[in-house]
Amino acid sequence: MGEAFTHIVRGDVMERIYFQDESKYRGSADALFIPETKEELIAYVKEKSIQKEAITIQGALTGITGSGVPVKGLALKTEKLNRIYIQEDEKGWYAYAEAGVTGEKLEQMASRETKDACFFPVLPTEKTATLGGIAASGAKGIHTRCYGGFKDYVEQCQVCTAKGDIIEVTWDMPEFGEIFGSEGMLVLFLSFKIRLIKKPQHIWGILFRFTDDRTAVRFAERIEERQHITAVEYMDKHTIRLIETYKKNMSAISSLPDIGEQIQVLIYVETAGESEEEAEEEAAGLLEACIEAGGDPEDAWAMCTEEEVERLRAYRHAASECVNMEVGKVNGQYPEVCKLSLDTTRSLTDRETLLDEYQSRLDKSNIPHCIFGHFGEGGPYVNLMAKDSAQYKEGTRIMEEWVHKAYEDSAEVFGEHGVGKLKKEMFQRNAPEVIVKEAVRRKQKWDPEGILNPGNMV
Ligand SMILES: Cc1cc2nc3c(=O)[nH]c(=O)nc-3n(C[C@H](O)[C@H](O)[C@H](O)COP(=O)(O)OP(=O)(O)OC[C@H]3O[C@@H](n4cnc5c(N)ncnc54)[C@H](O)[C@@H]3O)c2cc1C
């Protein structure tokens, strides 16, 4: 039988583990159930649905909007639904994975079973996230600009409805588009059939270091459309300084040299090629583009072994980790202070103007902040680390101004991390009526009794 914890008391360490995600948003539930099998999970949902008990679904709780944090009723965690196998058929290699499988496990299994010939290209940078959580939050990774999103690789999935019925959904059914990115409000993902693709044989990771923002942005814009580029990530000076203060205690990156006091911006670029010549040619082209933009290629760190590239990816990943740690420190003293991150695109505003707008507004506010993230996918994103409740309130107001502008730009808003509970009011106040109405329509269609994930989005 699965494990059931009932009545986790307020302040108990269990509450911090199970009723808080990486946004530091806190909640509570009457009980937590951790099923060991799909059958147990389905029986539980059926029973609780008849009793009209609310259920909040949880993956690894690495989410950053409070969407997996329960606010009432029961919590159901999928961590033990972690079976996976990899198989080849006439169309290629596939992973058959339960929803609680982590990105890391999928990556390892794909590599082992296909003898490193195939991989899954679009995991978010946090590899402990589960596939169910990735599917439900519409998470993106550094390679999304090149390879697309998670759902582009899912051919079929099995879901459990709010009533406990099982449905097989294939990529060509209209339901498919509705359930991905639905923050666990419509269905519970049980398992996926995921297409793996051929792994590029030669990957380069290059960290370009710039002494000013304008040159960095010019460089990033110049290289965006190049054919072999798979990732372009931006990190501002605050991000760099923050990572550098934590670096010596982070084993994945502690061996990297100091970034250097004079460096104000980092642009991390990845390229993929089928032959060594192709990859080297692309790397040389990037160094050339750096000179053309006014940068110094001598300041770039180029890495080409898998282990070295992983280290540079870990440096970018450390940006999110360090922000979360900073927010965690303040949250201990001010429980209402959570992570504030803005994941909007602004298609009508050019990147340089947008970054200027973010910087000048934040410099006036005194709220500690970092700007980093995907350059090609409409980002980078703003992360605020309020020091107390007053700054948190001010930060929320600033975020809302930008959310409003992004909707005016007809941009994609909350496109990567979702709305959850933290941004629910912002979403409802600013999203065009048609978007809010569609979210409500879907909820009523799939879960009219409001069993799944109460408190998210609508
Ligand atoms: C250091 C760090 C870096 C990160 N980097 C990125 C990044 O680069 N890009 C990005 O997009 N995100 C990023 N995230 C956010 C997070 O990793 C993703 O949102 C991830 O998809 C959450 O997965 P999870 O398993 O932790 O889900 P949870 O946090 O547990 O849940 C997230 C949502 O999914 C729902 N859910 C979970 N499992 C299921 C299921 N089986 N069926 C239905 N609904 C389900 C929950 O109810 C909730 O609404 C990062 C987080 C951290 C801590």
From TrEMBL:
<dbReference type="InterPro" id="IPR004113">
    <property type="entry name" value="FAD-bd_oxidored_4_C"/>
</dbReference>
<dbReference type="InterPro" id="IPR016164">
    <property type="entry name" value="FAD-linked_Oxase-like_C"/>
</dbReference>
<protein>
    <recommendedName>
        <fullName>D-lactate dehydrogenase (cytochrome)</fullName>
        <ecNumber>1.1.2.4</ecNumber>
    </recommendedName>
</protein>
<keyword id="KW-0274">FAD</keyword>
<keyword id="KW-0285">Flavoprotein</keyword>
<dbReference type="InterPro" id="IPR016166">
    <property type="entry name" value="FAD-bd_PCMH"/>
</dbReference>
<dbReference type="Pfam" id="PF01565">
    <property type="entry name" value="FAD_binding_4"/>
</dbReference>
<dbReference type="InterPro" id="IPR036318">
    <property type="entry name" value="FAD-bd_PCMH-like_sf"/>
</dbReference>
<dbReference type="GO" id="GO:0008720">
    <property type="term" value="F:D-lactate dehydrogenase (NAD+) activity"/>
</dbReference>
<dbReference type="GO" id="GO:1903457">
    <property type="term" value="P:lactate catabolic process"/>
</dbReference>
<keyword id="KW-0809">Transit peptide</keyword>
<feature type="domain" description="FAD-binding PCMH-type">
    <location>
        <begin position="25"/>
        <end position="199"/>
    </location>
</feature>
<keyword id="KW-0560">Oxidoreductase</keyword>
<dbReference type="GO" id="GO:0004458">
    <property type="term" value="F:D-lactate dehydrogenase (cytochrome) activity"/>
</dbReference>
<dbReference type="GO" id="GO:0071949">
    <property type="term" value="F:FAD binding"/>
</dbReference>
<dbReference type="InterPro" id="IPR016167">
    <property type="entry name" value="FAD-bd_PCMH_sub1"/>
</dbReference>
<comment type="similarity">
    <text>Belongs to the FAD-binding oxidoreductase/transferase type 4 family.</text>
</comment>
<dbReference type="Pfam" id="PF02913">
    <property type="entry name" value="FAD-oxidase_C"/>
</dbReference>
<dbReference type="InterPro" id="IPR016169">
    <property type="entry name" value="FAD-bd_PCMH_sub2"/>
</dbReference>
<dbReference type="InterPro" id="IPR006094">
    <property type="entry name" value="Oxid_FAD_bind_N"/>
</dbReference>
